[in-house]
Amino acid sequence: xxxxxxxxxxxxxxxxxxxxxxxxxxxxxxxxRRRFELSVAECGHLDLHxxxxxxxxxxxxxxxxxVDVLDRVERAVAGRPEVELLSAHRGLHSSxx
Length: 97
Prior knowledge:
Blueprint (H helix, E strand, L loop, with lengths): L1 E11 L5 H19 L2 E6 L6 E10 L2 H16 L4 E12 L3
Antiparallel strand pairs: 1-3, 1-4, 2-3
């Protein structure tokens, strides 16, 4: 079993309140869950209105599939016009570790 995770540090566009932040982050999280069938959550910068940390994780039988999914998720987030991807950190572990 392979477990992969990725965490994005995002700068949000024209956002001036936490309420506006939610209107950007929630649809992003929902789209990633639906499109890639993985676990996704906002996991940092909760008190800042122009920054967001979003994490996603996937479990699969082989390493190549996990890497492929994480690559596609990263491209999807980077392609969103309402956010700027500042950084992406990922990890990959086997159940044999």
